[in-house]
Design goal:
The protein has 264 residues and is an alpha/beta fold. It contains 12 helices and 10 strands.
Length: 264
């Protein structure tokens, strides 16, 4: 792997082989999402615990201090909104010149395997890889499923992750599944990070699925709503950091969460 590519990957995946990505890109199709109305205020107390931010160029320029010491993963796909006909009808929204100008560590876009726009979004990924390889910029593929919960099973996720890796993605973001998640990871020859999806019902549930996914081979998380929509976002971020980089058990992480909530 070229030095520049490896250097950028090392910025987002840490020395222990783990990573904690904090996505704040939801506005590109959801608009001013609850508790992400003012992105700068949302992320400020969470920055000490995450390894990289995943955001769009608009939010990066408008809400992120250029002096930030966290690497940026730039969302470079979009098009349809939540009120449109099909969220899968995405295109690449950002040129390679813009990616370089913003000095980001990596870029990310979604593929919608099994949708009417499967070929289009996989081609988006392939063309983005073609552009970024020339400049040593890693591409993260997001295996998007949306509300189709029946697709969040190992067989489908394995298919999506493997296709993303075959197209040249250096990292793949996908959903955790309770059954055979280890097979999803084993079938993907590049690092897998876990998406959060809809907000979990309990705090413990978040910690449990993250811990389980790490034990089954994922290298980290790309969680947004389950952190900044939590009633206690900083304690959740701190607890997740302990699971990811401190190998904390679920019980140990819950203790960290509760102690931080109680100001201990």
């Amino acid at each position: 792997m070229d030095w520049g590519m490896q250097n950028r990957l090392n910025k987002v995946i840490k020395e222990d082989g783990r990573c904690f990505f904090l996505p704040i890109d939801h506005g590109y199709f959801l608009g001013p999402t609850h508790r992400l109305e003012k992105p700068a205020e949302t992320i400020e107390p969470l920055l000490p615990y995450c390894d990289a931010l995943f955001c769009t160029r608009g939010v990066l320029r408008a809400a992120i201090d250029p002096a930030i010491d966290k690497p940026i993963i730039l969302r470079v796909s979009g098009g349809p909104s939540i009120v449109g006909e099909d969220l899968a009808n995405e295109v690449v929204t950002t040129s390679i010149d813009e990616i370089i100008r913003l000095n980001v560590a990596a870029v990310g876009l979604s593929i919608f395997v099994g949708s009417d726009y499967e070929t289009q979004t996989i081609d988006n990924l392939a063309q983005l890889v073609n552009m970024c390889e020339d400049f040593g910029i890693p591409v993260m593929a997001v295996t998007a499923v949306g509300k189709e919960t029946e697709k969040r099973e190992a067989r489908f996720l394995s298919l999506s992750c493997r296709i993303a890796a075959e197209m040249g993605a250096k990292v793949v973001k996908t959903y955790w599944c309770a059954k055979d998640f280890d097979k999803v990871v084993e079938g993907c020859p590049v690092p897998v990070v876990m998406a959060g999806g809809p907000k979990c019902e309990t705090d413990r549930e978040v910690l449990e699925f993250v811990h389980d996914g790490l034990q089954k081979g994922a290298v980290g998380i790309n969680l947004g709503r389950n952190i900044w929509q939590n009633q206690h976002p900083v304690p959740m971020a701190k607890a997740l950091h302990a699971v990811i980089h401190g190998n904390a058990t679920v019980n140990e992480a819950m203790d960290i969460f509760n102690e931080t909530v109680n100001g201990k």
